[in-house]
Design brief:
Helix content: 10-25%
Strand order of the largest sheet: 2-1-17-16-14-3-12-13-15
Shape: globular
Order of helices and strands: EEHEEEEEEEEHHEHEEHEHEEHHE
Number of helices: 8
CATH class of the largest domain: Alpha Beta
CATH superfamily of the largest domain: QueA-like
Radius of gyration: 20 Å
CATH architecture of the largest domain: 3-Layer(aba) Sandwich
Largest sheet: 9 strands, mixed
Length: about 350
């Protein structure tokens, strides 16, 4: 597959700049993996589209207020995105907009830090001096790290809307956006339908927006992201298999977490075991999915690793045809946009 094979035309006005009034107001394009057939629905219709024996797997990562303004000793402004802790002496991986220098101090709200070393791709190692826990400090001084295609400042409402109702493990710098469509009423309706759910964790990193480069896509590497698939999730998946239910991944982050755990265990479709670690799994066409049977996902950027994952799951032709159909039907794209449900044969 070439990079150009992952491109599609998207009118800029279809990039959602704000969430819908209610989480479940989003539209839903349903794609049948076997036939390529498409139909229109809404996220609120999920209880009717899923089966009583299905299992939803959701990402419980919590987005941190990771964007912070800083300044150099000379007064020059810097914009910092705190990506993840690196351990030891309050050190963090930070994505920087500006021109830091190794050994230089950066002045921060209610604290400071020292640049340790460049890590490449605009990322730096920063040693912090804050007098308190970094996450608590970020919640006080940081902003919600809205993605770059949302061309407005973060608002107070984004603190709640750019966060799923399942969020409990802080560590992401971008939301697992497929989960943003769920509210308490939808969860209750799914429970009444008999659809079960379980949680995994993948802390979404800045690499989620990293463009693919060059035509040799097989050589592309993803920035590592922390993930964990616990014993409860493994048991829920085993139970779904036993009752011949489908494992429905809510978002590409869940796919990467589950398939990383399966690869780590050498598992086929019946032997998933608990796993935690860093994953740089880059899913491309030809990948053998061991865990996921269906996928609920938002619409993704052209020429992105996320779009490639979806093409690997459902077929490049079917996915790009569905995207073209969504454009013609004026669906809303990306983080605050609409969604697509991709079905596969029963487990």
């Amino acid at each position: 597959m070439r990079l150009a094979d992952l491109d599609y035309a998207l009118p800029p006005e279809l990039v959602a700049q704000a969430p819908p009034a209610e989480r479940t107001d989003a539209r839903l394009l349903v794609l049948d993996r076997q036939t390529g057939a498409r139909s229109h629905a809404g996220v609120a219709d999920l209880p009717d589209l899923l089966r009583p024996d299905d299992l939803l797997v959701l990402n419980d990562t919590r987005v941190i207020a990771a964007r912070v303004a800083g300044r150099r000793p000379s007064g020059g402004r810097l914009e910092l995105l705190f990506v993840r802790p690196l351990g030891g002496d309050g050190e963090w991986e930070v994505l920087v907009r500006g021109t830091p220098r190794a050994g230089e101090r950066v002045h921060l709200p209610e604290g400071h830090g020292d640049w340790v070393a460049a890590l490449g791709d605009g990322r730096w190692r920063l040693r912090l001096a804050l007098g308190g826990p970094t996450l608590a400090w970020l919640e006080q001084v940081g902003e919600v790290p809205l993605p770059p295609y949302i061309r407005r400042p973060a608002a107070a409402a984004d603190r709640e809307r750019y966060q799923s109702i399942f969020a409990r493990e802080p560590g992401a710098v971008a939301a697992p956006t497929a989960s943003l469509h769920f509210d308490a009423a939808l969860v209750a309706a799914l429970e009444a339908r008999g659809v079960q759910r379980t949680l995994v964790t993948l802390h979404v990193g800045a690499g989620t927006f990293q463009p693919l480069r060059g035509e040799e896509l097989a050589t592309h590497t993803l920035h590592a992201e922390r993930a964990a698939v616990g014993a409860a999730a493994c048991a829920a998946i085993a139970a779904a298999r036993a009752r011949r239910g489908r494992v429905v991944a809510v978002g590409t982050t869940v796919v990467r977490a589950l398939e990383s755990a399966a690869l780590a265990a050498g598992a086929e479709r019946r032997a998933l075991t608990p796993w935690a670690g860093d994953t740089g799994l880059f899913i491309t066409p030809g990948f053998a999915f061991r865990v996921c049977d269906a996928l609920l996902t938002n619409f993704h950027l052209p020429e992105s690793s996320l779009l490639m994952l979806v093409c690997a799951f459902a077929g490049q032709g079917a996915v790009l045809a569905a995207y073209a159909h969504a454009v013609r039907a004026r669906y809303r794209f990306f983080s605050y946009g609409d969604a697509m449900l991709i079905t596969r044969r029963a487990a």
